[in-house]
TrEMBL record:
Keyword Ligase among UniProt keywords: yes
Name this polypeptide is given: UDP-N-acetylmuramoyl-tripeptide--D-alanyl-D-alanine ligase
Keywords: ATP-binding, Ligase, Membrane, Nucleotide-binding, Transmembrane, Transmembrane helix
Species annotation: Ruminococcus flavefaciens
Domain annotation Mur ligase C-terminal: ranges: 420-542
Length: 550
């Protein structure tokens, strides 16, 4: 074996393994550290792994080759390993970069140990294999150990082991996650139990859980604004709606002076809301919506309904109230099972009802009627009739705590759009953005298109479409395209492959396809939007912005 050549090969391969490993860890983190989800993601993105798979097989050609031929093949492998390193080189700007959490560091250590095993065996020149060859030699007298070492596998083994450490990195990363699972479970349980202890030491704290297929983050911000006008409140920040997100909030931010804890609860699988209820133990709950979201992991809309209503089941057992969006058909069907339910909505039969809604591009006005017949006129800066539902839910809950409708008018007027959820961004000049980039869904898309239709302007849609809708994804994106064709003057699709159903829906609606552009990236899409020539002001709806793992 050429020692210098092997060292060069080992250094290049190790560099490539580190860079590829960092990218794989990043994708695993974006997939929520869920190995099944990450496996599905790998299957969808199988083209990423073609080169490592080919090289994994090709390196075994080193076994029969010797001298110049082997050297040539090693140089070729070095070249392709360098391509893997350059392709995955750190420095690319991501929407959500890799976060080096304690969990991530532990996984990286485990993965590093797995890779180190390959290198240790390689450095030792495969003594285990040598031993096997000796046994073989004793059973086959026509071969000699020396000839086998020179002509066969042993001298190729260090290259194969080092190469395998690189080419198998996409498997070693999720494997390290599985190996660490018992450790991570023990760590999480310790933190969760500590959070429960902290909550138990706050007997006067009133806890409210908020869940829904969509609208839960907005509801959380709106409710915090209203309750904060009279009470000392704490809410889970941003989209901290997982068990560890809730746990972190409690351990880091909860103070004895807090009177209300507003806990957002997210779920992608059955029983995840039940798990969150076991941590936060809410007295009351709000279910903002139930719809076809995360069908890929839930499996069916029935599972979505039952999981969201795990919050209602918990609250019912505690004797608290569950506030339900009465305009949602799936929620309304389930509501009779809960005698403690308070319905809010625009439709008749709701306990808290909004009527006389007036919507313009400057905001929304509406009248709220409470169960006791009290009425109050509200105005807010938020755009769209759909926003009335969430604000109405917040009003209903706040009124239930003892704040009068009249006292709620000012905090409602103060409510601002939640970032990336129909947030109006006036950039000055001839262009205004409606940023609705977070976690798009069928109902959200329709609502956003309705808001876009409020403006007397050149209405432009920029979207990569909707994801995580399982078997219905193509159908729902097709319908989205049909609806977009009715509302938009120009449509820019981001991503050639995944936007095909939207494109077909637009075409099916008889839209002028000269006004449709398909971009490879958001940057290219915005460049194209800037190039549009129009006498009217441009209103650009940014509908959904897929994370880096799409």
């Amino acid at each position: 074996m050429n020692l210098v050549l092997w060292i060069i090969y080992a250094v290049i391969s190790l560099t490539a393994a580190v860079f590829l490993g960092l990218r794989e860890f990043h994708m695993l983190q974006l997939n929520g550290y869920k190995t099944p989800e990450h496996s599905r993601w790998m299957k969808k993105n199988k083209n990423r792994y073609i080169l490592p798979a080919v090289l994994l097989c090709a390196q075994f050609l080193l076994i029969p080759l010797h001298g110049g031929l082997r050297t040539a093949l090693v140089i070729v492998l070095c070249f392709f390993n360098a391509i893997i390193a350059l392709t995955n080189k750190p420095g690319k700007k991501f929407k959500k970069p890799l976060v080096y959490t304690a969990r991530m560091k532990r996984m990286m250590i485990t993965c590093g140990i797995l890779i180190a095993v390959f290198y240790v065996i390689a450095v030792l020149k495969g003594e285990t294999t040598v031993y096997i060859c000796r046994i073989w030699n004793e059973a086959h007298t026509d071969f000699t150990y020396d000839s086998m070492e020179k002509r066969w596998f042993i001298s190729a083994l260090p290259y194969i082991l080092v190469g395998s450490a690189l080419y198998l990195t996409p498997i070693l990363v999720p494997l390290s996650n599985l190996i660490n699972k018992p450790i991570e479970k023990a760590v999480q349980n310790w933190y969760i139990n500590d959070a429960k202890r902290i909550l138990s030491e706050c007997p006067t704290l009133h806890k409210v859980g908020i869940t829904g297929s969509y609208g839960k983050t907005s509801m959380k911000f709106y409710l915090d604004e209203l309750l904060n006008s009279q009470y000392n409140t704490l809410k889970t920040p941003e989209s901290f709606n997982t068990p560890m997100g809730v746990t972190i909030t409690i351990r880091r931010d909860l103070k004895p002076t807090h009177e209300y804890f507003i806990c957002e609860m997210g779920a992608r699988r059955v029983h995840e809301i039940k798990e969150l209820c076991g941590i936060a133990d809410p007295h009351d709950g709000i279910i903002t919506s139930v719809g076809p979201q995360h069908l890929e992991t839930f499996g069916s809309i029935e599972n979505v309904v039952n999981t969201k209503f795990e919050l209602a089941d918990h609250v019912k057992a505690k004797g608290g109230k569950i506030y339900l969006n009465g305009d949602n058909e799936l929620i309304r069907k389930k509501a009779p099972e809960y005698p403690n339910a308070v319905l809010y909505g625009l439709s008749e039969g709701s306990h808290y009802r909004a009527t006389d809604i007036s919507v313009s591009d400057r905001g929304t006005e509406f009248t709220v009627t409470a169960p006791n017949g009290e009425t109050q006129r509200f105005s807010m800066k938020l755009l769209g009739e759909h926003n009335v539902q969430n604000v109405l839910g917040a009003i209903a809950y706040a009124h239930g705590t003892g704040i009068s409708l009249e006292k709620l008018t000012l905090p409602v007027k103060r409510i601002a759009a939640v970032p990336h959820r129909l947030q109006l961004l006036d950039k000055g000049g001839n262009m205004t953005f409606i940023d609705d980039a977070y976690n798009s869904n069928p109902n959200g898309c329709r609502a956003a298109l309705n808001v876009l239709g409020l403006f007397d302007a050149c209405r432009i849609l920029v979207t990569p479409g909707m994801v995580e809708l399982g078997a219905k994804q193509e159908e729902l994106n097709f319908e989205f395209g049909q609806e977009a064709a009715k509302a938009c003057d120009h449509i820019v699709l981001v991503g050639k492959a995944q936007t095909v159903p939207i494109y077909n829906g637009i075409k099916d609606a008889g839209y002028d396809m000269d006004n449709v552009f398909v971009a490879d990236s958001l940057g290219e899409a915005l460049t194209h939007v800037n190039a549009y020539q129009t006498d009217k002001k441009k209103i650009v709806l940014l509908e959904n912005d897929l994370p880096d793992n799409y």
